[in-house]
Design goal:
136 residues; alpha+beta; binds iron/sulfur cluster
Length: 136
């Protein structure tokens, strides 16, 4: 990563980093695009995404990362289930089978909607207060 970041500075190039390491994302990225089952489900500048994650998958990913201020006995979150097979055939939300917040509306096609001027999410329930409470 040091070499890549050095080259980025020297050459003035953009870097597209694909990773599940959210610590690395926090340290290096300007902008984050979160994908699940072949779909873009959320995007925002890095600070906005870490401060206000909106999609349940993004939120679960962030809760699964250990933090330096964590209590020693903190249990990291895990996401139940597995990525569905043939997810390209799912008409509604592709995360619904693993999401503790799913409701009937989640079976409908999910639009990629604006949450703020530079923050988009693919979850029809993302603006509801319930989703801001820890669930898993
Ligand atoms: S659309 Fe429904 S099932 Fe999908 S992430 Fe949002 S709340 Fe969960």
């Amino acid at each position: 990563m040091e070499l890549i970041l050095k080259l980025r500075e020297e050459v003035g190039m953009a870097v597209l980093l694909i990773t599940h390491d959210m610590g690395l994302v926090a340290q290096t990225a300007d902008r984050v695009l979160v994908m699940y089952a072949g779909q873009l489900i959320e995007q925002a500048p890095v600070l906005e995404l870490f401060d206000h994650p909106a999609h349940p998958y993004t939120r679960a990913l962030l809760r699964s990362v250990p933090g330096i201020r964590d209590e020693r006995d903190r249990v990291l979150a895990s996401i139940q289930g597995i990525v569905p097979e043939r997810y390209d055939r799912i008409k509604g939300c592709r995360f619904a089978g693993r999401c503790p917040h799913r409701r009937d509306v989640c079976g409908n096609p999910q639009t990629y909607m604006e949450l703020g001027p530079d923050h988009k999410v693919r979850c029809s329930r993302a603006k509801e207060a319930e989703l801001n409470e820890p669930c898993c």
